[in-house]
Every structure is written in structure tokens, then in C-alpha cells.
Amino acid sequence: MLLKPKHPCPKCKAIVPNRHPVGKPYRCINCRSELQLSRSQLKIEFWIDLAIAAMIAWLLGARHWSFVVATIIISVPVGLLSVPLWEKLWPMRLEPWDGKRVI
Predict the structure, then answer these.
(1) What residues does each domain of the chain span?
(2) Which of 3-37 are b and which e, b meaning 16 or more Cβ less than 10 Å from the residue's Cβ?
(3) CA 2, CA 5: separation in Å to the nearest integer?
């Protein structure tokens, strides 16, 4: 999810529009290349958000199976709240589309 449409195409450096159909790749207006959000960056952000959710669950006193359940539940709001923060600290990069499912 791109919050700011100021992300350049990795091939031609033109600004890629923020809008795209759900499940379809982003398309550069200039060079017509199909793009996706950086999968490696998404994975890193996911694991950091999950670690933060786990720390919060632990600090709230969740242990054993309740820790697992609490981490899963807490990870949803942590993930949603972290999107603007991630965009400010580490703006999302675009990469060429690998043909797999697009988020």
C-alpha cells in the first residue's frame, strides 16, 4: 500500500501512480513496465511488526498459548498503525513484477 504516489519506477525513474486494480501489478505510465512492492522489504517489515506485537503481548502478561493468541491479535493493529510510520522511515520501493500474486 503506497501512501504517497512519489515512488519512482526502477527502470525509467518516472513517478508511478498510486492507484492500481486489486491483485494486479502497478504499471509505469512512461515505460509500461509492471511493478510490485518490494517483497523483501515487506517481509522485513512484517517480522519487525510481529516482534513488536510479541513484546507487547509479553509485557501484558501473556504466557504459553495465550502468548501466541495475544501476539496474533495484537499484530493486526500494530501492522495497521505501522504503515504510515514505515512509509515515513523507510519508504516502500518498487521492483519489477515477478508474475506472482500482488498484494
Answers:
(1) 7-96
(2) eeeebebeeeeeebeeebeeeebbbbeeeebebbb
(3) 7
Q: Tens of pLDDT along 18-50? A: 877 788 888 888 888 888 888 999 999 999 999
Residue 1, helix vs strand vs coil: coil
* CA torsion through residues 58, 59, 63, 67, sign: negative
> Does residue 82 sit in helix, strand or coil?
helix
Give the C-alpha separation, 57 to 36, whole Å: 32
Calculate mean pLDDT across residues 89-99. 87
C-alpha cell at 4: 504517497
